[in-house]
Specification:
The complex is a heterodimer.
Chain A: H1 3-15, H2 25-38, H3 72-79, E1 85-90, E2 93-94, E3 108-112, H4 113-119, H5 121-126, H6 137-144, E4 150-154, E5 164-170, E6 177-179, E7 182-187, E8 192-201, E9 208-218, E10 223-230, E11 236-246, E12 251-258, E13 263-272, E14 278-287, E15 292-301, E16 307-316, E17 321-330, E18 337-347, E19 353-362, E20 367-376, H7 380-387, H8 393-409, H9 415-431, H10 433-438
Parallel strand pairs in A: 1-5, 4-7, 5-8, 6-9, 7-9, 8-10, 9-11, 10-12, 11-13, 12-14, 13-15, 14-16, 15-17, 16-18, 17-19, 18-20
Antiparallel strand pairs in A: 1-2, 3-4
Helix pairs in contact in A: 2-6, 7-8, 8-9
Chain B: E1 4-13, E2 16-26, E3 31-35, H1 42-50, E4 55-64, E5 67-68, H2 74-79, E6 82-85, E7 92-96, H3 97-111, H4 119-132, E8 143-144, H5 150-164, E9 168-172, H6 180-192, E10 199-204, H7 209-212, E11 217-222, E12 225-230, H8 233-241, H9 244-250
Parallel strand pairs in B: 3-10, 3-11, 6-9, 9-10
Antiparallel strand pairs in B: 1-2, 1-4, 4-5, 7-8, 11-12
Helix pairs in contact in B: 5-6
Classes of the chains: A alpha/beta, B alpha/beta.
């Protein structure tokens, strides 16, 4: 670990609540202990090879205390989904005033993490189990700085008629802010729910660092739709580590949409932990300017007769950079596994770049697994076809870029979410149309 | 003035000369067939007219309604009323046929200073067009040409042509890959679009399309030139005797 990184770690820890305070202290101590061994991810951490956190260095990070005023109208406008139970986190802290949970049915329990961990042994026991601080330095950092967060529990066989929408806002005041949102979500056996995540940024200039950790337990035969949208300005760093376990017969449908201009890394681990579990984990990203967008996924087929399907499409212009690392592990037990992965990147500029690393590791013999990756420019035949029908080159390019990204959005199983994500994406594309037309910002 | 006048047109692809001096005049209201063996330059002619990149004109000129066609971008040619029905219509995953065609029609309307259609007006307009040609507009709900059979792709081209109402339609091997039923459907569509102010250039390898779309004139292309022109009986003669004797004569 370099001297700069060591200093950075000390600054980040100093911005946290300090060890030994409050009900989450065991977790914090464990996080600190793990970080003392590993430090922050650096050059030698293989899985962080393509994404460096150098932008963390040399910034006077502070804790969540200083924050600008936030009003509910702003959240409505930015996050949408007005007809949902809304959980608002500001700089990682649960904000009851901005949240909207009034008519939440008793089958769903939503509580601040310290309270839930104190009251329910199961919550305390589950925390940190799926997202392991010793293996993941960013999880360790989140744990070491943990003071708040939210626990969500859905009872067995409960059918929630509205989505639960987590709006996590990182809001630096005058000072740079480091936030460590933490969520624990437990979906009981046979229950059905939709979880939305909007990661937003509010501020005017100071750097923001978000280091979110989500642990999601999907019970037997349960169904969870889990859809994330992330946006943020150039000087925002966003890291989210998501660990999901899916029990037998359960279905998990996830989508991650990244349209932020700064650095974003979604690292997700999915464990298919019971027979006939099915997951679909898809995503789309759009990087302009100097954006750096990293999707790193690990799909762990631990049991027989499970299915996983993963499709990511990304568009990069200017000197934006994309990273896709997708590993599928099929354990010896996991016979009759069906696992498919595809990553496609469209490069609109000669300076845009993408690193794609698909990986299959198969120890069972009866499996159907495949992966593919394509990286290229816009298709010349398609462009000509559109132009030959009268559509000018700029509009033709915009149409093809939009189609390329919407092709994955179409996979979102929840219709309302699909439409909302498509709208967010097309809105952004329209705003960027003239710069995307030439692949480089004016 | 002729609608299309091609004078001594020469063009190359990847540095190889393909068109070696084409002369062709098409009047409004006429249907011309351009026939010829594979490699004679028929498709190159259609791409040069449509303005495809990589098809470099090295000599001659093309006048469209008296204006120099070759100065225009592909989209300007389309908006001016040139339509190329593709031999291999391109698949565009993620773009619904309606979206594609609405963009195309509105681009043309905008070019001519007309109001663009909104989604509702467009659907009404297309329905009426499709009905008049006995074509279904169901395929417009699907992504453009994705998973279409050969027949569906060519019907889609015909529907696009009907919607865009070109003044000059170039049909590049529209009959290739079609069974006889699909061929009839497409030919009926094409015939329904014949009009006094509209010309068509039908490029084909085989005579059979011309049983259904009867041309006013037939030209035989070989080795980058038009080697013989005549009326529709020339097509029948080719059917009987093949291209060989004409090629020998041209060589």
């Amino acid at each position: 670990m370099s001297a700069a990184t060591t200093d950075t770690l000390q600054i980040l820890l100093a911005a946290g609540p300090g060890p030994g305070v409050g009900p989450l202290h065991d977790l914090r101590d464990a996080g600190r202990a793990a970080l003392a061994k590993t430090g922050l991810p650096g050059r030698k951490t293989e899985i962080w090879k393509y994404t460096r956190l150098k932008a963390l260095d040399g910034v006077a990070w502070t804790g969540p205390d200083a924050r600008p005023e936030i009003d509910g109208d702003w959240i409505d406008a930015q996050a949408g989904f007005r007809d949902a139970w809304r959980i608002v986190l500001v700089n990682g802290r649960f904000d009851a005033g901005l949240s909207r949970l009034t008519d939440l049915p008793s089958a769903a329990r939503i509580a601040p993490l310290p309270e839930a961990a104190g009251a329910h042994g199961a919550v305390a026991a589950a925390l940190g189990q799926l997202a392991n601080a010793e293996r993941f330095p960013m999880v360790a950092l989140n744990a070491a700085c943990l003071e708040d967060g939210v626990a969500i529990g859905v009872e067995e066989r409960a059918l929630l008629e509205k989505p639960i929408h987590v709006v996590s806002i990182t809001a630096p005041g005058a000072q740079p802010v480091a936030a460590h949102p933490r969520l624990l979500i437990r979906i009981g056996a046979g229950a059905q729910a939709t979880l939305l995540e909007s990661h937003l940024h509010l501020g005017d200039g100071a750097p923001a660092f978000t280091n979110a950790v989500l642990e999601i337990i999907v019970g037997e035969g349960a169904r969870l739709g889990h859809y994330r949208i992330h946006d943020g300005p150039e000087n925002a760093l966003f890291v989210a580590t998501t660990a999901v376990s899916v029990a037998g017969g359960a279905q998990y449908d996830a989508f991650a949409l990244n349209i932020g201009a700064g650095l974003a890394r979604n690292e997700s681990m999915y464990k298919l932990d019971g027979e006939r579990a099915e997951i679909a984990v898809n995503g789309a990203y759009l990087g302009v300017g100097g954006a750096h967008i990293d999707n790193t996924t690990f799909i762990d087929h631990a049991r027989p007769n499970c299915q996983s399907q993963e499709t990511f499409n990304g568009v990069l212009s200017d000197h934006a950079r994309g990273v896709f690392q997708g590993k599928i592990l099929v354990r010896p037990d996991a016979q009759n596994t069906d696992g498919h992965q595809m990553h496609k990147a469209l490069l609109l500029s000669g300076k845009a770049e993408v690193d794609a690393k698909p990986e299959l590791e198969i120890y069972a013999d009866d499996v159907r697994c495949g992966h593919g990756a394509t990286i290229g420019a816009l298709d010349a035949d398609q462009l000509f076809y559109l132009r030959a029908r009268g559509v000018d080159e700029q509009a033709a390019r915009a149409l093809l870029i939009e189609a390329f990204l919407l092709d994955t959005v179409e996979r979102i199983q929840d219709l309302a979410v699909r439409e909302a994500f498509a709208e967010a994406l097309t809105g952004r594309l329209r705003a960027l149309q003239s710069s995307l037309a030439h692949g480089e910002a004016a | 003035m002729a609608l299309l006048e091609i004078r001594d047109l020469q063009a190359e692809v990847d540095g190889k000369e393909i068109l070696k001096g084409i002369n062709l005049t098409v009047e409004a209201g006429e249907v011309h067939a351009v026939m010829g063996p594979n490699g004679s330059g028929k498709s190159t002619l259609s791409y040069v007219l449509a303005g495809r990149e990589g098809y470099e004109v090295t000599g001659g000129e093309v006048l469209y309604d008296g204006e120099n066609l070759l100065d225009l971008e592909p989209e300007e040619r389309a908006c001016e009323g040139l339509f190329l029905a593709f031999q291999y219509p391109v698949e565009i995953p993620g773009v619904a046929g309606t979206t594609f065609l609405r963009h195309a029609l509105n681009a043309k309307r905008k070019y001519h200073g007309e109001d663009e259609y909104d989604a509702m007006e467009f659907v009404k307009f297309v329905r009426a067009k499709a009905k008049s040609l006995n074509l279904s507009d169901d395929m417009l709900k699907r992504p453009v040409n994705v998973g279409f059979s050969g027949g569906e792709k060519k019907r889609n081209e015909t529907l696009q042509m009907a919607v865009l109402e070109p003044r000059l339609a170039v049909l590049d091997e529209t009959d290739s890959g079609l069974d006889i039923d699909a061929l009839k459907v497409v030919a009926d569509g094409v015939n329904a679009l014949r009009a006094p102010d509209r010309a068509m250039v039908v490029i084909t390898h085989y005579q059979r399309l011309l049983d259904y779309v009867v041309p006013d004139k037939v030209h035989v292309m070989a080795n980058g030139r038009i080697v013989k022109s005549g009326d529709k009986s020339l097509a029948l003669e080719l059917e009987e005797r093949g291209y060989a004797h004409l090629l020998d004569a041209a060589a």
